Amino acid sequence: MLFYIDSILAWAKSEKSIRVLMLVGSRATDKPINQLSDYDLAIFSIEDCKYIHDDQWLSKIGKVWACVHERIYRENREVPTRLVIFEGGSKVDFTFFSLAKLKEIINGSLLPPEYDMGYKILLDKDALTVNMPKPRFKGFSIKKPSEAHFVNVINEFWFEAYHVAVYLKRGDLWSAKARTNGIHYNFLLKMIEWNELSKHDWNYCIPPMGKWIQSWVCESTQDALYGLFGHFDTEDSWKALLNTIGLFRNLAKESAQILGFSYAEDVDNNISKFILKLHDK
User: Is the N or C terminus of the chain more exposed, i.e. has fewer CB atoms within 10 Å?
Assistant: First the structure.
């Protein structure tokens, strides 16, 4: 992997438009990494047209196995991004920003979360980053929900759980699996995060999108995770759904008690009884 960083650095040095090359993401944090960790690069340039309208520049770095033109948005503006897998399996994410954006970052009172998690300056041709604030290695923060938001997530969870049960009863396993995945990532993960934060404090650092979840959840939640993902099989999918419901209910009730919120008991009672009736028929 070091070969590609050397090649990228040599390429960036040869490009007059590129003024700053910065390493962000997992390899720039204070957390452990491994050989398979991606390289996330923020490139600040005078103009980026030549890099986003033609991918030939990648061949100067190495042989490309795959390149994806990802669409990401920051502050409602599209940011040009290239997600690249080079020969040998090394993955590098290139994100292009203007020099005006760099100035905005440097002059801000706080670093944006993706830089506050950690950054390393690989190249600075004009000493533009000399006064850039140091990272606090704190990362992304999750705001305490309002009671309305909290209850809405509970309602949406049960709404989706109802549909999974219906699909399973019909024997439509693909749809049931797709909907279950949505429950896990959109509602259960959110409740897991809220539960951990409510028991610690709202500055507790949690990686985004459930990364390394085994390392930051409590022991009982960690044990429950292993029963959430069933095989492509009706009986196993039912078991996974009921386990998902059990974990969500426990976390939501505990979180509601800590936060002083109400729990949607009627929604739980009505839909859980309906689901069990479908399961037992």
Answer: C
